[in-house]
Predict the structure.
Amino acid sequence: MDFNDTPEEAAFRKEVRAWLDANATRKSDDKQSFRARNDDPELLRKAKEWQDKKAAAGYARMTWPKEFGGRGASPILQVIYQQEESNYLVPLGFFDIGLGMCIPTMMAYASPEHLKRYVKPALHGEEIWCQLFSEPAAGSDVAGIRTRAERDGDGWVINGQKVWTSGAHYSDYGIIITRTDPTVPKHAGLTMFFLSMKTPGVEVRPIKQMSGGANFNEVFFTDVRIPDTQRLGKVGEGWKAALTTLMNERLAVGLPSGGLDIDELMELARETELEDGAAIRNQQVRSKIADWYVQQQGLKLTRYRTLTALSKGQTPGPESSIIKIVAAPKMQDMGAFAMELMGHAGIMKEDVPFAAGFQAQWIGGAGFRIAGGTDEILRNIVAERVLGMPADVRVDKDVPFNQLGKK
Amino acid sequence: MNFDFSDDQKLLKEQVRKFLADKCPTKVVRRVLDGQEAYAEEVWKGLVELGVPGVGIPEAYGGLGLSPLELCVVAEEMGRAAAPVPFDTSVVLATEAIKLAGSEAQRKKWLPELAAGKAIGTLAVAEGPQPPRPRNLTTTFGGGFLNGKKVPVADGDAATFAVVLAKNALVLVDLAQKGVAKKRVETIDPARKHAELTFTDASAELLGAEGEGWSLLERLYDAAAIYFAFAQVGGAESAMWMARDYALQRQAFGRAIGSYQAIKHKLADCYVKLELARSNAYYGAMMLTDGGADLPLAAAAARIAATDAYDFASKENIQTHGGIGFTWEADTQFHYRRARVMALSLGGPMAWKDKLVTRLEQKNAA
């Protein structure tokens, strides 16, 4: 056992480092982030510039086939690129959903002409894509969406509302799941399309989150007309297409990195005086630090097991399905505990060492436990897909969608 | 990145797993639990024929000379079967103690006997109530003689020799002598017999230098914690699947109880804890093999994660079974008992959490 690169991987890592050194600035420490100023109006422009540079060098989506600007490379090389890139001050994050979920869905269903038109600009950061799935009445149960698409001549008219759409406010295109037939059971009446976010009738409104940030949006559709050529997959087979997208989501939703962790918690515990001396000497404090350390290590090492499978050209096991289940509550609980160590001052937003960082974890953790699959849905997924347990009994299974809730 | 066992190691694991599935099904565990035999002799004999006691012993001393990684995969299977044999005592604790601290003469004498299954060793640390600490030990060694009482000692009556922690040193004692009295003691896990050993001027010899008993024990515990972690992972996984299988079959309120989220989420949590434990155990195995600087920290993390995973899986296995799981006839009790025995035998989680933070502080200071 070792954490070393294979000779091929090592050579690639060297190549990547040389390229990054020539094109970007190395971070002075691993807590430094390009996004430190999230309100930078220039951030998007800089991110597009960096994405273009990266795509031109062939690093943007290495696993994609060559015809789409990839290298047909093993996923481990893409991971190595990302590991190296994370050591540099570069703007990231605008393209993950488009390239991780939307474009792969396009590749599975769109016409060759459309692929020729859309893949390259997406890869180079010229056009950004978003995923229009969740709705006010369809979160965990995403197949319960109500946004209608109705036939109108050789096209479709869309009416309804999406919510929690990441990046809709700066996106150029989106893939959207709609209900085309409400007279059949839930999953059978769905159809997927793509559309320009500039199509008349599309209106984007940001959602202000509990944390104060606004990364998500509501998107309203009022008589939005699109041609049938923008349909992805067959009419009524939108759920199948959505599963393609969501399968890719599991790979795309990563861990928030660069936040405060065990090292900072220990520093705080060393500097905090409790009744019997430094908090770090208190057994309750030590016990919690140990538990979180074991989780932190466990997550890192579990990721290494997944990378090992990728490195060997194997399909990774299901072990990575535990990551968000552990990481999200840990973030929330550790943040809350660190604030407790600060005493009453833990509620203050200024002048208290580490307070802002741990408060951000405490409040962000509440959202992270929901985003990209709630704690509860993820446990269902583990139970069903890993342990082979039965799916929930579905009372809506054979009922036409428009009859649900009517008795 | 190569953070996995090799194909050969997986093959060995499969071989041991098949052997135990065949020769050590739960009815064998039950037989030892219900009866008076010290351990399942026919299972142990088969394991000796497979070479299991010699896996980690160098070829020069009659072993197979394999790496700690091989012993780790074997340990996982022993744990999965909750095998009632002196594996953790003889193959892990006693063998590792001699490899760690034994003189050349002691290695030459004991390791070949251990590898051949002729000798069964154990480790004797506790002295009744109170967790053992250097200041409260009363067993003494001097002038070649050992005096004191150790209890509980796992496999104390089956063992032919013991590594004993005396106040000032670790010592090796042949248990077939007049100065040694063995008395079986009842414990929470009758499938692993324990004894009280009383030494009255028993002849013994130093294992390692005088004055280093406690520090040697700590190092021995670090290695053992990793092997134990693999056994705990195996046991946790076995308990988890036992619960899963029952949940698929048991019907309540018109459907399988495994279709209720209360059960699904509980078992998903078993899986989460199991994978955290497995990943930490792998790192421990890697440090053990490379003699890496992170060994003490990795051992503590592996120990804490695996103890938690096994405790949780074994108790929720009973809970998933409901009333039938609490009967003497149910197989659920084996892992529940073994999980607690393993949790306490190298010091409990509270002590290891304290150690982990101490080691983290040392690492950060370095």
Chain B is about 55% helix and 15% strand.
